[in-house]
Amino acid sequence: MAPSAPDLEARVRDALSAVVDPEIRRPLTELNMIRSVTVGEAPVTGDRTAGAHVTVGVDLTIAGCPMKSTLVRDVTAATEHVDGVGSVDVELGVMTPEQRKALRSQLRGGAGDPVIPFAQPGSLTKVFAVASGKGGVGKSSVTANLAAAMAADGLSVGVLDADIYGFSIPRMLGVDRQPTRVDSMLLPPVAHGIKVVSIGMFVPAGQPVVWRGPMLHRALEQFLADVFWGDLDVLLLDLPPGTGDIAISVAQLLPGSEILVVTTPQVAAAEVAERAGSVATQTSQGVVGVVENMSWLVQPDGSRLELFGAGGGASVASRLTETVGKDVPLLGQVPLDVAVREGGDDGTPVVLAAPDSPGAQVLRDVARRLAGRERGLAGRQLGVTPVG
Ligand SMILES: Nc1ncnc2c1ncn2[C@@H]1O[C@H](COP(=O)(O)OP(=O)(O)O)[C@@H](O)[C@H]1O
Ligand SMILES: [Mg+2]
């Protein structure tokens, strides 16, 4: 027998509770985005009752929602799956300003004014600020790959690209979309499961960036407070190279953040990297460790060509250990690897595109070491393979 209309409506609503908003990443039902579920008459063909026609009313956060087609597709699929449903129509509407206000305050946990969630007491999000002495050492490549590896391991991850002069995270993660603005709240695009916001998304293409310290501080504050990050396990910040204004703003806005230093093996690079790391002592941040990148190139005969010399990472790690008075480990040495560069150019980080390539193996290992420090991760399967 065909289910009664109220029964079918309840089951459709139940099915829709599994549909997640692609940006906010919460069920549509929880976000009050399902305006209505209307069950029509089931047409009788011959002696068989076909499924009922169901119309689902969906309220978008904003009219021009870029994820509109994804939403329609997901709602249709979920509804069609319900036993007793024959056909589906999705009717799109837009939230009223009051509904949007309610949504904003719901997402902010009832707080009225935006606050930086990661700076609140009791925040469980680990914040790593990725720093380097100079540009071109692979800071952004390391950031993108650590984020992708952690997300692939099941963590909820965000990346904030704060490198105002050399933002490259959107390309490396394959993001070409702006965040969706819901009044004063920004919903970040999601790529490879990572929420991504870049200062470059707010700068008109091809224009030089001439922001000064106070403006940078305000921009960073806004990205941290106005972006809906949700409950993150890890937030990675790609800092501009050196020890400039942004690094100091990060320390002020996110006192609990820890610095991850990236350097090449070269002595000159290591010296400036050490300076970037030792900013931490002035700002009383922790230094979580050092990643040496471009450590060597494996030759066809299997030998290692140390293109940029050797020892930079180890030397930064041991000198920072002395400066900050706590163990600063060398977390890994990432070899030069064509796949690392290709992954960055293609928008699919090497840890996903070629997870067994030499560079990816080290980056995945560093990601696990950083994630393993998480309090909330006790007992979590980290997928570590024993060496045979
Ligand atoms: N281990 C590596 N092997 C090969 N190419 C790399 C590696 N690390 C970085 N690259 C490449 O070097 C360039 C600079 O890296 P990038 O991450 O943009 O550095 P930064 O953010 O420090 O300026 C990029 O083209 C990147 O693809
Ligand atoms: Mg960079």
Automatic annotation (TrEMBL):
Q: Which is one Pfam family of this protein? A: ParA
MIP18 family-like domain location: 9-90
Q: Which InterPro entries does the record match to this protein?
A: FSCA_dom_sf, MIP18-like, Mrp-like_CS, Mrp/NBP35_ATP-bd, NUBPL-like, P-loop_NTPase, YlxH/NBP35
Q: Residues that bind ATP, according to the entry?
A: 133-140
* One annotated GO molecular function: ATP binding
Keywords, A to Z, come to: ATP-binding, Hydrolase, Iron, Iron-sulfur, Metal-binding, Nucleotide-binding
Q: Which family does it belong to?
A: In the C-terminal section; belongs to the Mrp/NBP35 ATP-binding proteins family. Belongs to the Mrp/NBP35 ATP-binding proteins family.
Q: What does this protein do?
A: Binds and transfers iron-sulfur (Fe-S) clusters to target apoproteins. Can hydrolyze ATP.
Q: How does it assemble?
A: Homodimer.
Name under which the protein is recorded: Iron-sulfur cluster carrier protein
Q: Which organism is it from?
A: Isoptericola halotolerans
